[in-house]
Amino acid sequence: MNPTPSSKEGWTILTPSPHSPSLPPCQRSLHAAAVVKDSLYVFGGYDGQNRVNDFYQYHFPSGIWREIVTVGGNVLVGGTHASFGNNNNQGGGNHADMAAVGGANGTNNAAGWNNNNASRQRLPSGNNITATGNVPTPRDRHAAVVHNSTFYIFGGFDGTSRVSDLYGFDVDRLVWREVRPAVVGNGPPMDDDDRGGGVPAAVVGNHNNNRRIVGFQNNNIVDAGGGGVDGGNNNVNMQGWHNHVNHRGRENGLEVDFHQELIQQQHQHQPPSPRHSHSAVVYKDGMYVFGGYDGSYRSDFHEFDFVHSTWRPVFASGRTPRARYRATACVHEDMMILFGGHDGTRHLSDVHTFDFLAQNWSLLMTDGVPPLPRDSHVSVVYKNSMYVFGGSTGSAMNDLHELTFPTPSEDHMTTDAFAAPDYSTIAGSTATFHDEGGEAISIAKWRQIPPVPGGGIAVHRFCHVGAVYHGSFYVFGGYDGSSRLNDFCKYDLALDDLFDTTVPPSTLLTDLQSFLYDEGCLSVSDITIMVENIPIRCHKIMLMRCPDVHSAISLRNKALGYVLSHFEAVSKTSAFEDMARCNVELVFEILKNR
């Protein structure tokens, strides 16, 4: 895409390159996106009529969009790709349906995925990237994260129900796969193929060197055999999840205690409830999911371990943020930063941090004027700041704010639930905080980034996506309150760093003075002006460098004016007599001008 700056304030609009082999995604909101290597990947969303599951890559170095088409996968294609920018189709729900990220309940009977909507099998072409695997169902309000070279989406809303499935797309192998939680056993985690169509399973014993699998389906335990037990047959035995039936068997002297395995399975943590509009980040080898909406507004916190493919609830100390959805979460060093959202009653503007090392929640004290309380915004971290753009305060916004974090030696977060102020009233606070000894406490600082003269402006929006790449903040799509968008714009955060750089005082004059008055550098001075018998060393280049202030002509005219206005006194001085002997023409000029 080619940058095309508009005429008002600080953003650059990226227009499709005429050489791009694919058109950009159609207009949409409620989609999800993340950066993997040198590309932005965008999945799903709502186009005003349907939830979609099309998938796009934007390659930053080349500025080219490509659609990723899964061979054999059903993809619901949204809207039209004929235009780029605003789409005036106003169909599709009200503000209550607009969330930034989300997830649903495992059913594949998605709106736009069944026969009641126009879904079709996409065919690869030379303009597309061809992928394989099981593409996720159409959805919106899901969350996207990246771990290593895999782009993951979790949860969302499929038009009928909320979901809690997890899919990963390997950008190197170009393969989609559904990631099912592994179940604790005495064998290694298995791939989808080993699980017989992706059914979670556990290895509970070895029989004649065969795996004996206990799987789970519809909350039932499925014993898939694997060796003779209690008579040696391989009949499938299903027991209810909560039935503590002690099944014991022996095979070649190996005793298998199924009751013990069932207890292990009961202690195995389940995925978060089906939800949408949650927040998710990756820290090291874990995906952390906070809040969202599952029929109620949530404040629960979960971790998915990518290495072992297991979920666990995160039980942390400190003051847990109140339940919310449509908030944003970012990672800064060893902290997750949670900002804003909606609690079902009002928009929020509080900032919470979760310390991954200490497993502790804190309310971050902030100074300056914070953004208006909002949801459905985007937040990114760049260097030592978090940037927040757009969102809904009840109206679509296009303001850009920066929250600068205190240095590690200065930071302070309130962790005492009784001492912490109510974060529903802290917005806009500029109070100075003190510790027990009365010393002022350094806190994070909010500021709104002012317009850049001569720059571009981004359209008001919410339910968009955003990401940082090489010092620029990229934003795609969203909803402006009347139309869904597919514009693509960026803000140069590195340029903003330049504007904030402290320029040291100029040393030009002191340096030049040192050259002129240094006895070892007298050759630098080629003019000496005597003022009341005091020599002023100069250089003609220095005298002429500014025509209006410092030029020799200006200085000459001022001196001539002084002589004319004080001629009686000046003409009697010895300096005037010396000048008259050396410059008769100047004497005649003075006399002529009297």
UniProtKB/TrEMBL annotation:
Name the record gives this protein: BTB domain-containing protein
Query: What are the UniProt keywords, alphabetically?
Result: Kelch repeat, Repeat
Matching PANTHER family, A to Z? Answer: LEUCINE-ZIPPER-LIKE TRANSCRIPTIONAL REGULATOR 1 (PTHR46376)
Region called Disordered, residue ranges: 1-24
Organism, as annotated? Cyclotella atomus
Gene3D superfamilies, sorted = 1.25.40.420, Kelch-type beta propeller (2.120.10.80)
> SMART domains annotated for this entry?
Kelch
Q: Does the keyword Repeat apply?
A: yes
Q: Which domain of life is it from?
A: Eukaryota
Organism lineage string = Eukaryota, Sar, Stramenopiles, Ochrophyta, Bacillariophyta
